[in-house]
Design a protein that fits this description.
The structure holds 2 protein chains of 2 kinds. In chain A, 30% of the residues lie in helices and 24% in strands. By secondary structure, chain A is α/β, with parallel strands linked by helices. Chain B has 2 domains: 61 residues, no CATH class; 200 residues, no CATH class. Chain B has 11 helices and no strands. Chain B is globular, with a radius of gyration of 22 Å. Classes of the chains: A alpha/beta, B mainly alpha. Chains A and B meet through α2, β6 and α4 of A and α7 of B.
């Protein structure tokens, strides 16, 4: 579905990676290895070279905003441009349902300044899911969450995978890829390599 | 109307008595302001006397070349001032170029419009009208543009995650930077809006006061002042708009990325 070929920026790459329909892929690696830069490069937020194709169509034929609606990236630190939470969401029909799925049904009436890190993380995910993207790039989506919230978010992600969404996530939790049945990669020094799960577990 | 009263240089010296008194008080009270007070007063005196001489020469010469040259010098100084007043600046040629360009284009456009359309001296570039008008327009546009750009650049540098969050949701570079554009425009427009609101109640504008003192009918002076204020407002608005959107265009790219690497200053 998403084919990344020789993706390169001044700091990382070249990286090749293919994401299949309805699959989950996990990347781990030390801080500063370039994991977030890799995700940023895929959504064209930093200057980069190489080709990326979504369902056979080249990224350069998409206007950048369209590309980012189809291939959606949720950074580890989310940005909030308005004081009220509700201003950050489009009034789609699935909004209430999505907020409930992450345990934040009340949140749309709140103020951003009073949100906890974990609440921001979940709301930023909801904001991206509203776009109904074909590919979802998640940077440590559950790093600030308590175990019940992690379970809720993972359930939501599994539902998306089941409906054909391809997910690429960065995680430091060694169990998370197992729970999401993800294929694993390791990133170090700006290079990506396949990771044998059994080898890592032993 | 009474005739115009010509001041002698002794009148000027006499008028400075109170300023000198302030300087003496500053010494007595140990305020430490004496030096700056005296220096800026002397500086002003020298600058104004020189400008008076230069203007007199240019008016006397009555040549288009000298008029344009004087206008160009004013433009260069104002352009430099815009550049200096920004904490974070665009890198390369754009740093001084964009602000000065926006100011000069809108300033020149509005000045020519005012000269050719309403004031109508003969010839149209007659320095006695063109230079003071251009100077006033340039001064106000300069303040607006430098405030607008300074606000925009500071806000964008601090608001990277806010802009990128919107870009990531599929918004265009113009949509994602709109809150910052609004902030910059508001700050660039504020001085001229305040000036318009206070004019006539809190203060009589300097130009109008000057005309009244030199014997012009107050109603006539008011008409001139209104004309000038409208031209100033128009030029400032155009300049600030041009500079703000020009800078947003430069700080983003056609792939709708935020390009803070094109901005200098402490990156946060």
């Amino acid at each position: 579905m998403l084919i990344i070929d020789e993706l390169k920026t001044s700091l990382i790459g070249p990286i090749d990676l293919t994401l299949e329909v309805g699959s989950c892929t996990a990347i781990s690696g030390p801080s500063g290895a370039g994991k977030s830069l890799f995700l940023r490069a895929i959504v064209d937020l930093d200057e980069n070279s190489g080709t990326i194709k979504l369902n056979g169509r080249d990224r350069n034929t998409f206007p950048a905003p369209d590309w980012r609606r189809n291939v959606s990236y949720v950074p580890a630190e989310s940005g909030w441009w308005s004081e009220r939470v509700e201003d950050h969401f489009r009034p789609t029909s699935d909004l209430v349902e999505l907020l409930a799925a992450v345990g934040l049904e009340e949140a749309s009436g709140w103020e951003v300044s009073r949100l906890s890190t974990g609440e921001r993380q979940r709301l930023a995910l909801v904001r991206a899911l509203q776009l109904d993207p074909e590919v979802l790039l998640l940077d440590e989506p559950t790093s600030a969450l308590d175990p019940p919230s992690v379970a809720k978010v993972e359930l939501l992600l599994k539902e998306r995978i089941a409906t054909g969404c391809a997910i690429l996530l960065v995680t430091h939790d060694p169990e998370q890829p197992v729970r999401l049945k993800a294929s694993c990669f390791h990133m170090a020094g700006g290079k990506l390599r396949e990771h044998d799960l059994h080898e890592a577990a032993s | 109307m009474s005739a115009y009263h010509v001041l002698s240089y002794w009148d000027i010296v006499a008028a400075s008595v109170f300023l000198l008194l302030n300087a003496v008080l500053s010494i007595l009270l140990n305020l430490g302001l004496t030096r700056t007070l005296i220096v800026s007063a002397l500086r002003m005196t020298v600058q104004l006397i020189l400008v008076g001489l230069v203007l007199k020469l240019i008016f006397f010469a009555g040549s288009l070349l000298w008029t344009v040259l004087a206008a160009a010098v004013m433009g260069v100084f104002a352009g430099r001032e815009i550049w200096v007043r920004q904490d974070r600046r665009l890198k390369g040629f754009w740093g001084p170029g964009l602000g000065a360009g926006a100011m000069l284009i809108s300033g020149a456009l509005v000045t020519l419009y005012g000269l050719a359309g309403q004031i109508r001296p003969d010839p149209v570039w007659q320095p006695q009208y063109a230079l003071p008008l251009f100077g006033m327009i340039l001064g106000n546009t300069m303040t607006g543009v430098s405030l607008g750009l300074d606000t925009l650049h500071t806000a964008l540098a601090k608001g990277k995650s806010e802009v990128e969050a919107q870009l990531l949701l599929g918004r265009t570079r113009w949509e994602a930077t709109r809150p910052f554009a609004r902030q910059a425009l508001r700050s660039g427009f504020t001085p001229i809006i305040n000036a318009m609101a206070a004019t006539g109640i809190v203060s009589l504008p300097g130009m109008m006061t000057g005309q009244i003192l030199s014997g012009v009918d107050p109603q006539e002076a008011v008409k001139y002042q209104l004309l000038i204020m409208f031209l100033l407002g128009g030029a400032t608005g155009l300049g600030v708009l041009g500079a703000t959107f020009g800078s947003i265009w430069r700080l983003t790219d056609p792939r709708h990325r935020l390009r803070l690497d094109r901005l200098s200053g402490g990156t946060s």
